[in-house]
Amino acid sequence: MLNINGDHCHPCEPGKIQIRKFKQVVKIRAINETTPITQNHDEKTARIDLSTLSIASLPSQREISSTLNRARRLQAPRISNSQIFDISESYTRTLKN
């Protein structure tokens, strides 16, 4: 597989592709689950199979947390300025249903 960008062409680096996939998986999980971001990051880091050099290139929890927090915030509904608003179905249930 080649990465072609204008006149610039070289083979893709498998480590970088795995790191990109790692970031995507962690972000999707942060959006869809309510587990703490630190726990989410640590679990995925423990399960990933990378070379030592690629592991050193993984973003730390601190580096990626602002991106994940922002992704979570964007999923929450905006606070209404008026007193008349609808509450979406997913926010009307409690843990005990």
Which sequence of strands runs across the widest sheet?
Answer: 1-2
In oligomeric terms, what are we looking at?
single chain
- What would the average pLDDT be, to the nearest integer? 80
- Beta content comes to 5-15%
- Helix residue percentage: 40-55%
Tally of extended strands? 2
List the helices and strands and how they pair.
Layout: E1 2-5, E2 8-11, H1 14-32, H2 37-47, H3 52-57, H4 61-75
Antiparallel strand pairs: 1-2
Helix pairs in contact: 1-2, 1-4, 2-4
Explain this structure to me?
This protein is mainly alpha-helical and 97 residues long. It has a domain at 23-72. 53% of the residues lie in helices and 8% in strands. A two-stranded antiparallel sheet has the order 1-2. The radius of gyration is 19 Å and the shape is elongated.
Give the key terms:
single chain, mainly alpha, two-stranded antiparallel sheet, 4 helices
